[in-house]
């Protein structure tokens, strides 16, 4: 008997709504214990990302080795990776410590438009990291970037997108519906054995900062408890929907009003 333990490898968000901060909040809210290794320091707030600075490969390796030499982890969530060197470290450590239940949120560009992964690193992530993950969770824009396509986000396109990602080395994919054309937010889990879709009503809210981080870390947490991939996605989707519905209860005092913002979920 032990506390389900999840390692999050992601960027630091000083605003507290994405990256390691929301991962840790989510993992603990769902009854797990979060370990974390920082890949980059960011400067961001409710209006977007204004700067990033990756940690050195040596520091990331030291963080991971120090944690993994001491604690067994049940699942891993991977977010922002910044560059080729950091991806190579993560790949090495996954193999060295035989890590399993790995969920990759392929963070490429922030919602405000800042590039968070260098172009040369995308190919390394796809060729070396994708095959090690039990699930990859791209949104529509990330899928189109990875595939070089212009899908619009219709449900009928999902199998085409999924098979394109399979050809890149992904084992299973969760195609997220937050940016699609469908009336409801439909996330589709595509495994080699078939597709399962999970739908919730869309929620009108300004609290959308870190939704992808929350979802992927929630999936990893449920996997750490021994649930199946389908069960983990189902419960994580419900958790995200609940947080979206309740997010208006978080009221921060801003310096300026009447500005479009992407605020934290909780």
Poorly predicted tracts of residues: none
Number of extended strands:
9
Helical content band: 25-40%
Judged by helices, strands and strand pairing, the structural class is alpha/beta
Characterize the main sheet.
Answer: 6 strands, mixed
| Overall outline | globular
Straight-line distance between termini: 29 Å
Q: State the strand order across the main sheet.
A: 3-2-1-4-5-6
The name CATH uses for the topology is UDP-N-acetylmuramoyl-L-alanine:D-glutamate ligase
Q: Proportion of β residues? A: 15-25%
So, the CATH homologous superfamily? Answer: Ribokinase
CATH class: Alpha Beta
Compute the gyration radius: what is it?
17 Å
How many distinct domains?
1
Number of helices: 8
Quickly describe the structure.
The protein has helices at residues 19-29, 57-68, 84-97, 119-129, 140-147, 158-167, 211-224, 229-246; strands at residues 5-12, 33-45, 48-54, 75-78, 102-104, 135-136, 173-175, 185-191, 194-200.
